[in-house]
DNA sequence: AGGCATGATTACGC
DNA sequence: GCGTAATCATGCCT
C-alpha cells in the first residue's frame, strides 16, 4: 500500500491535465462530482481491483474502458518508470556481458574441424593435417580417411540441424513472448525496454543451450579424431624387411647409433616409412637396448653375422681373393666392420660363444675373428656399456661423429666400395 | 585374458 | 631441434 500512495502522490499533478475523456461519461461525471484527482485515481484503482469479481464480458468491457481512460498513459508511464528504477536497474548490471570466451573457443574449434563454417570438403583438410602432424605412415588408409570424413559429415549434419532447430525455437519463443508482453502492456506496466530485456534473457537461455550443443559436438569430433587419426591408435608394426634394415644399421653402428639426417632419409625411403618414424625407431631402440643389453645380445649377434656375411660376400666378389681376410679396408664405408668398433658387442659375443650358427656361416665368423685381431684395440671394451662411454655420454655433438653415409645406395649393410 | 613387443607421444634437459 | 626417459596405446603371441 505504501507504493500505491506514492504512485497516487506522483500522479496528483498529472491528473489535473485538461484531458476530458468524452468517451467515458462515467469518469467525467465522477471527476466533476468529486473534483479531486486523487479520488479519481483511487476510483480507477478500485475499478481495477473489482475486475476480478466481474463476469468475463463485464471485465472485458471494463478493461477496455480503463484502457481508453485519459489517465491511462500517464499512469502507465509512471508505473514503468518505477519498475525500471526498482527491479530492472538491479538486474541490468550483470546483463551486458561480453562475448563468452568459451563459446568463442568452441566456435573456433568447430570451424577448424570443418564442422561449422562453409561446406567445401569439410574435415578432410583437418584430417589430412592431423595425419601429417602425427607422422602417420603414407601407406595407411585412405579408407580410414573416407570413413572419418563420413562420420564428420554426419556430425556436421546433426550439428546444423540441431542448431537450426534451436534457432527456430528461439525465434518462435521470442516472438511469442514479445507478442504476449505487448498484449499485456496494454493492461500492466511493461515498457519496450523491458520487452527488449526479456528478449535478451531468452536469447541468453537459448545460447546456453547452443553452447551445450557445441560442446557435445566438439566432444564427438574429438572422439572421432582420436579414434581415426591418433597415430598411436593405428600403430602398425613395421614390416619385417623395414625392421631388418633398421636393425642392420643400428647394430652396425652400435658405437654411434645416431644416423645423420641423410641416413635417416635413406633409411626412411628404404623402409617405406617417414623420417620421423626412423627417428622414433632409433630413439626407442637406443633406449631399450641400453636398458637391457642382455636381451638384445642375440639380436646383435645375428645382425653382426649378417653384416659380416654380406661384407664378406661383397668383398669376395669385388676383390677376387687378393685380400680375403680384410673385407672392409675401404675408407668411406657406411657400416663396415672395420670401422671404429661398431660391432663391438657382436664380436664380443662371437668370441664368448654366446650363440650358435650354422656351419655355412663359419668361414665368415672366422673372418670376423680375424677382423677382431686386426682391430685389437677394441677388445678391452668388455660388454657393460652399449657404446664406448665417450660416444654415448658425450652428447655434445653427436652428429659430428656420425658415420658418414656414402653413396645413397649404401645405407645398409654393404661395403663401401 | 594377460604379458610382452613396439611405435608414438610427452616432458625435460641441453 | 635433438636426445633421453617415461609413458601411452596398440599389436601380437601364448
UniProtKB/TrEMBL annotation:
Keyword Transcription regulation listed: yes
A biological process from GO: cell differentiation
CDD domains: homeodomain
InterPro entries xrefs: HD (IPR001356), Homeobox_CS (IPR017970), Homeodomain-like_sf (IPR009057), KN_HD (IPR008422), PBX_PBC_dom (IPR005542), TALE_homeobox (IPR050224)
DNA-binding annotation, residue ranges on this chain: 231-293
Domain PBC: 36-230
Single GO MF descriptor: DNA-binding transcription factor activity, RNA polymerase II-specific
Highest taxon of the lineage: Eukaryota
Family label: Belongs to the TALE/PBX homeobox family.
Identification of the protein by name: Pre-B-cell leukemia transcription factor 1
Organism: Albula goreensis
Amino acid at each position: 500500500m505504501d507504493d500505491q500512495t506514492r504512485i497516487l502522490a506522483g500522479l496528483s499533478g498529472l491528473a489535473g491535465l485538461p484531458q476530458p475523456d468524452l468517451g467515458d461519461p462515467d469518469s467525467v461525471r465522477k471527476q466533476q462530482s468529486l473534483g479531486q484527482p486523487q479520488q479519481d485515481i483511487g476510483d480507477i484503482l478500485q475499478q481495477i481491483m473489482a475486475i476480478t469479481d466481474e463476469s468475463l464480458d463485464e471485465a472485458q468491457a471494463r478493461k477496455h474502458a480503463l484502457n481508453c481512460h485519459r489517465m491511462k498513459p500517464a499512469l502507465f508511464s509512471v508505473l514503468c518508470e518505477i519498475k525500471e528504477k526498482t527491479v530492472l536497474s538491479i538486474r541490468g548490471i550483470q546483463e551486458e556481458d561480453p562475448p563468452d570466451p568459451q563459446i568463442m573457443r568452441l566456435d573456433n574449434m568447430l570451424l577448424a574441424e570443418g564442422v561449422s563454417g562453409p561446406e567445401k570438403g569439410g574435415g578432410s583438410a583437418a584430417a589430412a593435417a592431423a595425419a601429417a602432424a602425427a607422422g602417420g605412415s603414407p601407406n595407411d588408409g585412405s579408407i580410414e580417411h573416407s570413413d572419418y570424413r563420413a562420420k564428420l559429415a554426419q556430425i556436421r549434419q546433426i550439428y546444423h540441424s540441431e542448431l537450426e532447430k534451436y534457432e527456430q525455437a528461439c525465434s518462435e519463443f521470442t516472438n511469442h513472448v514479445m507478442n504476449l508482453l505487448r498484449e499485456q502492456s496494454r493492461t500492466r506496466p511493461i515498457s519496450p525496454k523491458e520487452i527488449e530485456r526479456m528478449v535478451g534473457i531468452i536469447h541468453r537461455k537459448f545460447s546456453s543451450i547452443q553452447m551445450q550443443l557445441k560442446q557435445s559436438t566438439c566432444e564427438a569430433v574429438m572422439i572421432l579424431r582420436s579414434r581415426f587419426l591418433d597415430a598411436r591408435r593405428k600403430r602398425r608394426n613395421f614390416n619385417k624387411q623395414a625392421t631388418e634394415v633398421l636393425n642392420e644399421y643400428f647394430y652396425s653402428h652400435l658405437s654411434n647409433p645416431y644416423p645423420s639426417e641423410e641416413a635417416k632419409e635413406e633409411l626412411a625411403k628404404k623402409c617405406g616409412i617417414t623420417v620421423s618414424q626412423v627417428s622414433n625407431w632409433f630413439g626407442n631402440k637406443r633406449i631399450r637396448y641400453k636398458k637391457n643389453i642382455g636381451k638384445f645380445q642375440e639380436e646383435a649377434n645375428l645382425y653382426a653375422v649378417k653384416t659380416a656375411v654380406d661384407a664378406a660376400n661383397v668383398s669376395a666378389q669385388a676383390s677376387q681373393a687378393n685380400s680375403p681376410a680384410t673385407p672392409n679396408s675401404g675408407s668411406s664405408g657406411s657400416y663396415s666392420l672395420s670401422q671404429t668398433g661398431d660391432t663391438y658387442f657382436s664380436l664380443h659375443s662371437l668370441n664368448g660363444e654366446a650363440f650358435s650358427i650354422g656351419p655355412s656361416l663359419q668361414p665368415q665368423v672366422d673372418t670376423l675373428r680375424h677382423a677382431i685381431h686386426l682391430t685389437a684395440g677394441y677388445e678391452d671394451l668388455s660388454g657393460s656399456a652399449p657404446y664406448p662411454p665417450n660416444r654415448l655420454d658425450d652428447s655434445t655433438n653427436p652428429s659430428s661423429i656420425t658415420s658418414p653415409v656414402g653413396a645413397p645406395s649404401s645405407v645398409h649393410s654393404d661395403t663401401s666400395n
